[in-house]
Description:
The protein is an all-alpha fold and 79 residues long.
Amino acid sequence: MPISDDDYNTARQMLVDAGSDSASKSHKKHGTRGGSPDSHGRSLLQEARDEFNMMNPVARVAGRAAVVEAARKMGIEEW
């Protein structure tokens, strides 16, 4: 199921704000017809999750929370 550009961009920004370098390097979506494939959202989440897992415990907890919120924003239940 496609993800709206607005939802993807909001989720991406949540991850950037939590400290994800991989999310900050990803491109914002704009003007894609019908939204973006959910595989793009899953990749964004997986990369950020892996990145946060390498951080110190405090950043890891905050990062995981951001990943969960980003997934919820994009409507992705399994990733």
